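Q: I'm building a small set of examples for a reading group on sequence design. Run inverse folding on the following structure and report the sequence directly after it, with nothing in between.
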């Protein structure tokens, strides 16, 4: 087999994982370690990621390498057809012919389906198709487990080198039976070729009490295999039943199948080119023998769904011409591209500088607006002086004339609580600022008659600008009034009206 060195062969059969690590040197295969495990119940069999993690942990526990891996497939995973190749078809055309014929016979879609073939007798080929969904699942599983898969083939092909090395007549047609971890494989072998393959979902018994019934079930499956093979055009007379293994299960199966088919039977001892660990149990050896057989050089040209045979690439010349044209365009336009790239980098640098300058100016402008707002606020606050002269004039016009009345006290005060801004334009600070002030005037004096005081009160109240409050006791010849006004802001605001 090509690629001498350490190999890991794995077989995932239902919930069973069987794996061996072997070293290949020429035609010799030496099994160094093995693993046999049952999938945990918490691992979903449809989840390729979860299954891959479990397989990775199992191989790591046995220190099995993952750089060169072969996946052994059950017959149930692959569609096998014996196809006739049209006369005149050349070797380079056969892959296309096989794929066309298989596409017409498959009931599943061709998308992602891996199709490979191997030469058979009479110019025919044995073609196999691994459905795309199964191939994709295996790929995801291998990726999660960290496996570098080099080959992907059928377990039944591993029986050929075992039969050829152990039988007295290697080319004689035989029915080979291989009991695996999760199923049993039946193969009709003859002339150094696999003539027919069939898988039965019958697992090895774990109790001696089940041994006889297990043999009888496989005897029935052997008859079904023989009948299915006999209806095909490649059918031939089988001379014997050969069971893989040397344990009690192999003996019981060989006896039951041979009795049902009325044929002689024998078991396969591991051949001279294969070396197994001395401490490997016989029942485990029966399960790993076909996996070790897949590493023999005799299986080199058999089906490999990882790297199937492919037809000639008719578009290679066109792609090469296109690549040459693209290379020429690259040479011609490369200089312009480099110059353009340099100019683009300079412009991008200039844009970056301008963006930085713009950010600095925006920050300065924001600071300027804040300072201007503070200034206008202060100006409005400082400039908020009531029009005292106008208000005193208004008050003077309403006071009684001497000697009817005299004024002793005039007091004026103002208080400012806030500054108001009213927007009037599109700019941020376009508008008017004002600081409304609350004013208070106190006037006190004496009068000759009470009627003069009453007349003064009436005049003040009629002004409708001030709120008039009488302070102190109500004395006929004395008066003291407080005038209150809210919101007087500018120097020109003064009470309107009033007689002199």
């Amino acid at each position: 087999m090509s690629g001498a060195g350490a190999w890991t062969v794995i077989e995932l059969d239902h919930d069973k994982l069987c794996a061996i690590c072997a070293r290949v040197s020429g035609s010799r295969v030496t099994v160094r370690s093995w693993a046999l495990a049952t999938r945990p119940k918490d691992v979903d069999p449809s989840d390729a990621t979860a299954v891959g993690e479990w397989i990775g942990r199992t191989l790591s526990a046995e220190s099995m390498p993952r750089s060169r891996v072969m996946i052994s497939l059950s017959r149930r995973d692959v569609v096998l057809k014996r196809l006739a190749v049209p006369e005149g078809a050349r070797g380079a055309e056969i892959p296309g012919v096989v794929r066309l014929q298989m596409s017409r016979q498959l009931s599943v879609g061709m998308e992602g389906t891996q199709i490979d073939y191997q030469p058979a007798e009479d110019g025919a080929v044995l073609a196999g198709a691994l459905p795309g969904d199964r191939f994709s699942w295996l790929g995801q599983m291998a990726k999660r487990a960290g496996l570098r898969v080099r080959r992907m083939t059928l377990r039944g092909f591993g029986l050929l080198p075992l039969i050829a090395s152990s039988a007295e007549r290697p080319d004689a047609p035989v029915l080979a039976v291989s009991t695996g971890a999760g199923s049993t494989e039946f193969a009709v072998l003859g002339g150094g070729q696999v003539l027919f393959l069939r898988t039965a979902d019958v697992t090895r018994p774990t109790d001696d009490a089940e041994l006889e019934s297990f043999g009888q079930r496989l005897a029935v499956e052997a008859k079904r295999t023989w009948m299915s093979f006999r209806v095909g055009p490649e059918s031939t007379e089988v001379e014997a039943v050969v069971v893989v293994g040397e344990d009690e299960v192999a003996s019981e199966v060989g006896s039951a199948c041979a009795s049902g088919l009325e044929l002689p039977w024998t078991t396969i001892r591991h051949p001279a080119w294969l070396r197994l660990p001395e401490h490997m149990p016989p029942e485990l050896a029966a399960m790993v023998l076909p996996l070790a057989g897949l590493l023999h050089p005799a299986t080199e040209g058999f089906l490999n769904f990882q790297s199937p045979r492919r037809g000639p690439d008719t578009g290679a010349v066109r792609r090469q011409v296109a690549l040459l044209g693209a290379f020429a365009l690259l040479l011609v336009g490369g200089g312009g591209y480099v110059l353009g790239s340099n100019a683009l980098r300079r412009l991008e640098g200039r844009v970056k500088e301008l963006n930085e300058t713009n950010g600095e100016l925006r920050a300065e402008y924001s600071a300027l607006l804040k300072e201007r707002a503070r200034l206008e606020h202060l100006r409005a606050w400082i400039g908020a002086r009531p029009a005292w002269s106008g208000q005193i004039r208004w008050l003077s016009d309403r006071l009684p004339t001497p000697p009817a009345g005299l004024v002793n006290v005039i007091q004026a005060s103002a208080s400012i609580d806030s500054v108001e801004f009213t927007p009037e334009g599109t700019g941020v600070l376009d508008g008017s600022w004002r600081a409304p002030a609350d004013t208070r005037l106190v006037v006190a004096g004496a009068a000759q008659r009470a009627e003069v005081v009453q007349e003064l009160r009436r005049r003040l109240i009629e002004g409708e600008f001030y709120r008039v409050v009488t302070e102190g006791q109500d004395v006929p010849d004395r008066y003291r009034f407080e005038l209150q006004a809210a919101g007087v802001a500018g120097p020109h605001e003064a009470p309107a009206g009033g007689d002199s």
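The chain has ten helices and 20 strands.
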